[in-house]
Amino acid sequence: MSSTATETIQHAKPQRHKVTGDVHLVLRCGDTVLYGQRYNTGFEDGAWHLPAGHLEAGESVVTALIREAAEEIGVTIRPEDVQFSHIMHNSSSGGRMAIFFTVTNWQGEPTNCEPDKCSALDWFALDAPPDRMIDYCRTAMRHIAEGTPFSVYGW
Predict the structure, then answer these.
(1) Percent of the chain, pLDDT > 70?
(2) Which among 65, 83, 137, 138 counts the fewest CB atoms within 10 Å?
(3) Cα separations in angstroms, 44 against 41, 83, 133, 137, 146
(4) pLDDT per residue over 118-141, tens digit each?
(5) What range does the domain containing 49 cover?
(6) CA distance linking residue 148 with residue 85, whole number of Å
(7) Residue 4 lies in a domain
(8) Cα(155)–Cα(149) distance, rounded to whole angstroms?
(9) What is the reported pLDDT for 59?
(10) Cα(106)–Cα(147) distance, rounded to whole angstroms?
(11) Residue 1 half-sphere exposure, CB side, CA atoms within 13 Å?
(12) Residue 67 maps to which CATH number?
């Protein structure tokens, strides 16, 4: 086969989808959930959002969640206390897998450890989330309340 034919075949293959992984912490105390108010981030500042962050190379989603919880709100979570709640294939930024985990047992008092990115922490009832939220998070929280483990958003 000629090199031109080989190049044509290689170029005809569809590109693989590259996806960013996000982890989201649904920290529950009874029927309330902890949210942080975004500040100085350049995206949806003023909106309430769950403690969350990107999955880094070489870490599991559970390890990422535990790391983000310690970094953002200063709590310690054991891996066995992390419960899967929902996964959402979100179209933002070209495609993200947003994975939501619920935790009801942790050590430490939630504290705003990132005041440069978060202006406040507050607890809201599971069935009465904050008025201003990032829409995909509001949608995911509705699915979690309904017990739906998977959704697609924005495609």
Answers:
(1) 93
(2) 83
(3) 8, 27, 8, 12, 26
(4) 999 999 999 999 999 999 999 999
(5) 20-153
(6) 8
(7) no
(8) 18
(9) 96
(10) 22
(11) 8
(12) 3.90.79.10
Residue 147, amino acid? G
Q: Are 153 and 89 in contact (CB under 8 A)?
A: yes
pTM listed for this prediction: 0.89
C-alpha 141/C-alpha 107 separation (Å) is 24
What is the SS3 assignment for 83?
Answer: strand
Position 143 in a domain:
yes
Instruction: Name residue, tokens 């309330």.
Output: 32
Contact (CB, 8 A) for 71 and 53 = yes
Cross-strand partners of 53: 23
Work out how many domains the chain is built from and give that number. Answer: 1
Single-letter code of the amino acid located at 54: H
Cα–Cα distance between 91 and 79 in angstroms, integer? 29
Is residue 49, in this structure, part of any structural domain at all? Answer: yes
Residue 10 lies in a domain: no
Place of tokens 């999955």: 55
Q: Are 131 and 119 in contact (CB under 8 A)?
A: no
Helix (H) or strand (E) holding 90: strand 83-90
